[in-house]
Amino acid sequence: MRAPVRRLPARGHYRLAIQPSEEPDLNQQQLQARAQELRHQYDAVCAQKLNLDLTRGKPCSEQLALSDALDGILAGDYRCADGSDSRNYGGIMGIPEARRFAADYLGTTPARTMVGGNSSLQFMYQIVTSALYHGVRGAASAWSREASAAGGRIKFLCPAPGYDRHFAICESLDIEMIPVAMTREGPDMDLIEALLKADPLIKGMWCVPKYANPDGVVYSDAVVARMAGLGRIAGANFRILWDNAYAEHHLVDNPPELANILTLSEAAGTLDNVYAIGSTSKITHAGAGIAFIASSEANLTSLADQLIIATIGPDKVNQLRHMRFLKDMPMLRGLMQQHRAILQPKFESLLNELDSGLAGKTVNGKALGKWTVPQGGYFVLFDTQPGLADIVVKLTAGAGVKLTPAGSTYPYRKDPGNTNIRLAPSFPSLQEIAAAMKIFVMCVELASIERALAQ
């Protein structure tokens, strides 16, 4: 019988520490026999030449189909709420109804929102490149100019494990990344504050504050409040990129709430230091959604001045389609319940395989692994025994199961413990998830036992 799925309480994040079995560990002879048995199973699976994929958190086709009513929804009516024609040039800030929607989503006012194209990642790249080369308030505020004058290098704080595409932006722009450990409450704020006080060339920080990618953490109220105060201790033109990608992506009935950093920052006098970012990328059509940001009006004006050089305006027709389809936040939340009905069984299948295959198992008194049980988002984070993540990923690849490369959740792909593996169950079918996870569990046990035998 499968072990029941462990569920989290209504608030907070817990990494499961798998309790060792009361049964004694296998002795050396038994370990050798088990290793031989697992190798035989592994070779048999490899011979099947499977092709299973648990890499990226993509919506499946059933999720995408939930928003197929977008197609043709305008029925020839391209007029926006202000009477403008969405087919024409202009409107760099987005159409009025989309800005109202974005304001409700991000917890601010329409005047402090900008709505763009299909990619929040592109927005973030534009924010960083504009600040780096052109400045946040004109050329004199360019980060690169300050770094050159100081003879140093621009740096970003990177909560880790974290989102690999955030790290790729920094790496592509030669911005030095400083890893910051994640806790159950969010990133280590004592360390963050100390680093900012010591180094004015730390100009930015990445955050996925709700159902963080990949460990599912929801930042606590205390952490968000301290985040809102960082602009008072950081160097000039410091920016937090608050990537709230999973704000409405719940897997539980009573999801945890995230404190509003925009409200707290305004009260602290630090609104210029925060960009809050969201999108419909995993809500409607992943590759054809809308992205939006919120910040101070001065920040948005500065960003718009840079964007207008690259584009005469966003895809306002798609913005209008989305507003006719989504209408408001209650409508969006109803749609997200349909997403949950598709996603939750997939997460349960993945977690059940981990529970039934690994819970209680030890080698030399050490658990074979530990994993998260998220309340929302798109990922389960698995930690192997130290030093085994890359071996497990290589084994699973040989058996026909693709995983995100080991180390991807850390800056420069350097996981200090070589333990971290991100699992993404959204795209495969239930049958594919069960098959892939059985192979994953087998590879974790095989790698752990073979390493123990080699020591």
How would you portray this structure in words?
- This protein is an alpha/beta fold and 455 residues long.
- It has 2 domains: 15-63 and 334-454, Aspartate Aminotransferase, domain 1 (Alpha-Beta Complex), CATH 3.90.1150.10; 82-326, 3-Layer(aba) Sandwich (Aspartate Aminotransferase, domain 2).
- Helices cover 40% and strands 14% of the residues.
- It has an 8-stranded mixed β-sheet, with helices on both faces. A 4-stranded antiparallel β-sheet has the order 1-13-14-16, with helices on one face.
- The longest helix is centred in the C-terminal third of the chain and has 30 residues, at 329-358.
- The radius of gyration is 23 Å and the shape is globular.
Uncertain regions spanning at least 5 consecutive residues: 1-17
Tally of strands: 16
How far do the termini sit from each other? Answer: 34 Å
CATH domain topology of the largest domain: Aspartate Aminotransferase, domain 2
| Main sheet: strands, sense, barrel | 8 strands, mixed
Tally of contiguous helical segments: 14
State the secondary-structure class. alpha/beta
Question: Which H/E pattern describes the elements?
Answer: EHEHHEHHEHEEHEHEHEEHHHEEEEHEEH
Number of domain modules: 2
The CATH homologous superfamily of the largest domain corresponds to: Type I PLP-dependent aspartate aminotransferase-like (Major domain)
- Named at the architecture level, the CATH assignment of the largest domain is 3-Layer(aba) Sandwich
Q: Which percent bin holds the helix content?
A: 40-55%
Query: What's the overall geometry?
Result: globular
- What is the C-alpha radius of gyration, as a whole number of Å? 23 Å
Spatial order of the strands in the main sheet? Answer: 3-10-9-8-7-4-5-6
Text of the CATH class of the largest domain: Alpha Beta
Mean pLDDT: 94
